[in-house]
Amino acid sequence: MTTRTLLATSALALGLASGTAAQEITVLGWGGAYTNSQVKAFHEPFTAATGIRVISVDADNPATPIKAMVEANNVTVDVASIEYADAVRMCDEGLLEPIDPASLPPAPDGTPAVDDFLPGTLTECMAGTDVFATIYAYDTTKFAGDPPATIADFFDLQRFPGKRGVRRGAKATLEMALMGDGVPADQVYAVLGTPEGVDRAFAKLDTIKSEIVWWQAGSQPPQLLADGEVVMTIAWNGRIFNAAVGEGKPFAIVWDGQVYEPEGYAMPRGTPNKDAAMQFIAFATSTEPLARAAEWISYGPTRRSSAPLVGVFQIDGKTPMPPNLPTSPENLTNALFSSYEFWVDYDAELNERFNAWLLAN
Fold this sequence. Notes:
alpha/beta, 17% strand
């Protein structure tokens, strides 16, 4: 079945009629290469199938403005891309509309959506779009002969001197610090859930604090590497892949110690165009669009039925995408699945500690 036929079939199955009352919806994303992947795989095909225009807006973390909009009773966004932990927490707080799994289309072979989505990618208020990873990457021109290869190397300023880029936040940063200090991936949350474990994570960060350049937006890490402001940086894998393969930058990803997690689409409570928003989510999270998104950025699709359809990188037309996805088996040898349960419980506490640590000498 061709891409055109699959998309047309999806549109018909969802009952997407051009006479829908809403003429446009607003979708809030993360910007950069990530938003571009969704425009190409979701927005443009959805508009072609339904006539509903998709307005794309971006934020450093869409969960933040969504929470503010709902609490102010001034919701101007219909759909937002958010991380799993945020989706669970915000759903519990009544900030998101529920999503009925029965409203999502089945796989092409008839498998119900609830069975087609990977574990942890479908929640009460979120339909997963991708699995991304927080990794670290380095500039290959800075290290000849014996480049960094493990998460411990990121924290080794003696063997690998130079500035480090680190996201300004506790999530993933603390987990990577513990793995860099020798904690096995399957023990990270047990350790981080203790006062001694938290102290250990911050002690590890102390060893590189003087060399850290902080970032907040996903577009910043590849730019920091390109500008020579850092020699290594924690980053989202898709941004580094697009810079390296799509733009020819001399960057390499180290998968050891990656922290991977799903993210997906949710509707803010009070979304002004709920029916059209749900149509968009059902369309975007169907089998074919998810596979196409993984051809624009190296994030794994959330449906089992999508994986066999993923082809080559659309920007260069030749690089096979499956080996470059976080979910590829060879990239999971020392990887940590981000625990949404942990971050729902500890997010406020650990970020308060993180912010205090930032201000300390």
